[in-house]
Each structure stands twice: as C-alpha cells, then as structure tokens.
Amino acid sequence: MGLIDKFEKRIERFVNGAFSKAFKSQIQPVELASAVKAKMDKGAAVVDRDRILAPNAYVIKVSESDYARLIQHGSLISEITKQVSNHAKKQRYQFAEELEIKIEALASLGLGQVQVSASGSKSENVAAVSWKPALDFGGKRYLLAKPRTTVGRDATADLQVDDTGLSRTHFAIIWDGSNATVEDLGSTNGTKVAGTKISSMSLPADTVIEAGRTSFVFRVVASNGGSK
Fold first, then answer.
1. 121-153, pLDDT tens digit by residue?
2. Beta-ladder partners of 171
3. DSSP count for the chain of H helices, then E strands
C-alpha cells in the first residue's frame, strides 16, 4: 500500500524476479507477509503505557501444492521475516521472544488459500490497541488529532508547513476512526498521489501525498492511548 520502503522494495523485486515464473496461479509470497502483518496487528495488545506487545510466533498454513513450490526457495522465510520486522518497527511493537515464522502444508486448504496462527503475546492486564492517523514528513511524525486536519503554509492550517510551494491551506485529511480520505482544498499547484492530481480520494496507510515541494506519507499507527 502506498509507499514501499527499502525492505518492501526488495521483497517486491524478489517476487517479480525469481518467484514470478513459479507462482503464476498460486499464492504470492508477498501475500504471506501481508497475512502475517494483519495477524500481528490483530494480536497486538497494550501491556503498559509505553509497551505494545505483539505475538512473536507465526505459522503460515497453505495448500500442499503451494507448499511444495514455496519450500523450493530457501530465502523466502528470511525475506518475509524482514518485511514483518519492519512493520513491527513502524508500529512500535515489542516481542516477548524472538520473531519466528514457519510455513506448513494443510491438506484441507485449496490452492491460494492461507491461514495464519499466532502465539506469544498472552499477558495479564492487557488492553486493546487503538489506531491513530499520522503524517510523516521532514523526518518527523505528526499525529492527527482531529477528524479533519488541514495542511498548508499558513498559520490558519492545522498543520503548518514551511514550504512556499504550498497554498495557505492546501489539502485536508479526513479520518472517521478507521478510514481516511485526502481532499485538495483548491490549491494553486494541486495535490498529487502516485503522480496524479486528485480532488478527493480514499487514503490507504503508507500512501505518499505530494504537495508543494514536500512529500507526506500517511500512516496508521498503533497507539496505547498515552502520549509520547
């Protein structure tokens, strides 16, 4: 989704290279990493004010046919682990033990089907993780506290950015608690996503927004409700 960091670029090249011929109709390795990340997010829990604990052990189950093809590539687990570790770092998760990922065959699964089980996050007095929208730019992260946050170069914008290429109020991020939208506010130079000017569009996590001379990365980050 959106911005692909160095690890994700590497696994993308990995998939498009050695795996592209072997996996024309079967499960793609990048889907396995996404399934583990989703399971990790679901299993994350707040232990205390400064600690979000995530499951550390994952078993990916696929069809026997998919498994027979996957195990031919020895670096698959290493690449998936790197991508999942990077995701955990972004979300500020911690593990009780070292991250471990395994792949097993399950006869009842059909071609392309995936099941992921997780363990290692059980703890007393845990609370559910909440998710907060944020913008990354200029080497910093800014949490968006309002349902509608405006961005521009003027002090009237909720998030003021020192960029003469921006309009006074250039674009807005709308957050309903689970989904986000980016909306251009009639800016002079426009707001772009993936190189295309937009007026309004849904905003998946890790999407890059280009406005003025600045690139903004929209994030959805795990929060335990406390301020950092």
1. 655 445 556 778 999 999 999 999 999 999 999
2. 151, 184
3. 5, 18
